[in-house]
Amino acid sequence: MAAMTRLRRQAILRQATGYIELGELLVDAATPLPASARRVFERALEMLAELPEPTRSLPHAKLLEGEALRALGRWDEALVPLRTVTESEPDRIEAWLGLGWCLKRLGRLDDAIAELKRGILAAPRQPILHYNLSCYLSLDGSVQAAIEHLTQAIAIDGRFRVLTEAEPDFDPIRTDPRFVAVTSVTV
Questions:
Q1: Looking at domain 1-115, which of 3.40.190.10, 1.25.40.10, 1.10.340.30, 3.40.50.720 is its CATH number?
Q2: How many Å apart are CA 128 and CA 135, to the nearest integer?
Q3: Which residue, 88, 111, 114, 138, is the most exposed by fewest CB within 10 angstroms?
């Protein structure tokens, strides 16, 4: 009986993961959330709600919950499960990124910056944390700090240089000579 329960819990987590992945394929950041994506994210949340405790409170389940709520635009609600994950598993970069995303969209840029700084302390070699922090610092007008973190991201993974071309968060600093120097490729 216990094995069936464990298997059922694992199946629910896999299905919820699948729904979230499917929903993300249906999303286009430039358009409103389609009804089909909304339905699959809501279905993921319904499935996660079926999980008994303590499984429902495990970091993996909380991360899925936070991601589904974030995708649905329920950013305030998403903060709770995402923070739960960062507190219990600080090396889970998805949770830090989700926190930053939600806080930025809630108009709490200072808090988004603070959370990503905490994330970098937990996972300093993750270029995406440096990159996203750089974006938020750019929007905040903290040019030098933005460039320092962008430099870190590019130093760890040069592919982040290309991402800067289309990233509107860098528009406030795009013409700064330091930004140009970091993002230009010299041959």
A1: 1.25.40.10
A2: 10
A3: 88
